[in-house]
């Protein structure tokens, strides 16, 4: 990795393995009205703190688990509260159960396949100290950025798998990433080829517009990271939506009626097939 080294360099781990597909997995295309509608031209959540947390992703490649924990944070924030017991221990425990990671054995820290991690959360839940929460989920066409925007607007955030470049991982002397991830990165930042750094799971939270150079806010490594839409288009390899029926606030552009029923039916069918 061609990140600039310094006394203040920060460790940020990757851990999203190449995108895969499982027979019968839920797809958001079943929610025809929800995915086909024109997404909001702008999604401004600058006044809301989604409480992004590191959740161990500076020590191990548990980004697929951290992404679920941060999706819970984000969904709760939209309803005006937080889920206090989303801890690093909980995230690492879920990462271990969903991927086979054995704490203390680095050779087992091989990251996660997003659809398998989401399927495990669907079946077994995301266990916290005081409760276990079960998401509905579905995959979307990663090339359908209107659909990705609908997921962010209606399901609190889009759960993405991206192929990061070495240039994205560049750090300044204080250990900060580039203020905006873009495809037009300085040559000094390293290789701009998507995937040259590795795969990563993160959340898309909001956006200023829909043009190539408009900015999106990503939630990753305990912080908000800005990027352009053309960067998202360049790096994205998979997109998924999660729905926490216990937490989704009223008034969101959430799937309802036939769309909501279709999402439940797709998840039930996948669970039945897995059983």
From TrEMBL:
<feature type="region of interest" description="Disordered">
    <location>
        <begin position="1"/>
        <end position="29"/>
    </location>
</feature>
<protein>
    <recommendedName>
        <fullName>Peptidase C39-like domain-containing protein</fullName>
    </recommendedName>
</protein>
């Amino acid at each position: 990795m061609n990140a600039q080294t310094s006394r203040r360099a920060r460790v940020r781990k990757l851990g999203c393995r190449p995108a895969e597909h499982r027979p019968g997995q839920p797809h958001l295309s079943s929610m025809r009205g929800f995915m086909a509608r024109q997404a909001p031209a702008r999604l401004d959540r600058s006044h809301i703190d989604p409480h992004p947390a590191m959740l161990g992703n500076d020590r191990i490649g548990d980004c697929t688990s951290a992404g679920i924990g941060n999706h819970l944070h984000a969904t709760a924030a939209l309803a005006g509260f937080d889920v206090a017991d989303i801890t690093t221990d909980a995230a690492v425990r879920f990462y271990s159960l969903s991927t086979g990671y054995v704490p203390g054995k680095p050779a087992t820290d091989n990251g996660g396949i997003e659809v398998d991690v989401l399927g495990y959360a669907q079946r077994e839940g995301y266990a916290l100290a005081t409760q276990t929460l079960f998401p509905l989920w579905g995959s979307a066409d990663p090339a359908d950025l209107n659909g990705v925007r609908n997921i962010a607007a209606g399901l609190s955030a889009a759960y993405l798998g991206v192929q990061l470049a070495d240039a994205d991982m560049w750090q300044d002397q204080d250990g900060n990433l580039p203020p905006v991830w873009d495809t037009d990165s300085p040559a000094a930042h390293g290789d701009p080829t998507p995937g040259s750094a590795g795969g990563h799971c993160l959340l898309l939270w909001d956006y200023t517009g829909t043009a190539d150079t408009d900015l999106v806010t990503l939630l990753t490594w305990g912080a908000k990271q800005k990027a352009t839409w053309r960067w998202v288009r360049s790096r994205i390899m998979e997109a998924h939506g999660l729905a926490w029926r216990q937490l989704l606030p009223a008034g969101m552009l959430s799937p309802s009626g036939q769309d909501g029923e279709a999402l439940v039916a797709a998840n039930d069918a996948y669970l039945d097939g897995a059983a």
